[in-house]
Amino acid sequence: MKQESKNDSNSFYLSEERTFLDGPRSRFKELWFTLKVQYQFIRAFRKLHFIGPCVTVFGSARFEEDNIYYKQAEEVGKALSEMGFAVMTGGGPGIMEAANKGAYLNNGFSIGCNIILPFEQKPNPYLHKWINIPYFFVRKFLLLKYSYAFVVMPGGIGTLDELFEALTLIQTKMIHHFPVVIFGKEYHKELYHHIQAMAKNESISQEDMNLLFLTDSVEEMTQHLNEYAVKRFGLVKKPMETRWWFGETRSKRT
């Protein structure tokens, strides 16, 4: 009975966001939805404020532990934690779980921004801190907000959406020129060729190719992030001061 209630609640959030995207509604409904979205942003800002410099890892939720890409994502998470980054993912299974696991088991800091869905995507067990977000666009914003770099592992449509969202914001200078690493040359070769074709046909500039770094090597990824994230932005791992009047506390690792 309890499980059924949760599913009903999750279905409500999905239905609500779908209804919002259908077009204009009454002014009261639009205002009420805006206030609820504002609440989710404030809740997330309080939860994630002290997580430190992050790298967000994107990738498919469908790969199991015996998959080569899952194992590579573990190595990626481990390497990022050794650099001093907190590892942020969408908080679910597959590549997300693997990257979180790599950081978590290596005494790194592991964070998840989990989306609430009708079939209940549960936070994976390798998280020190996570937040459940009911709206896709709020979650996408959070996955970008706290990160100084993005690592794109093999994935599906959602992963490509996240990749091009990050690239668009960098290209239009809405966010800094954070490094974007595409991990998996064989898996992403057609995608990379298509981006090259866009540059050749001038639908993007040739300089936009510099926004991407394609590799199969964790070591190369580490060197690239050290050069274009750590050194470029002067990143230093240090605790941030909390403010008692906001009721804030630092994250505790388990």
TrEMBL record:
Gene3D superfamilies: 3.40.50.450. It catalyses: AMP + H2O = D-ribose 5-phosphate + adenine. Its EC number is 3.2.2.n1. It holds the Pfam family Lysine_decarbox. SUPFAM superfamilies: MCP/YpsA-like. Keywords: Cytokinin biosynthesis, Hydrolase. The keyword Glycoprotein does not apply. Belongs to the LOG family. NCBIfam families: Rossman fold protein, TIGR00730 family. This is Cytokinin riboside 5'-monophosphate phosphoribohydrolase. It comes from Maribacter flavus.
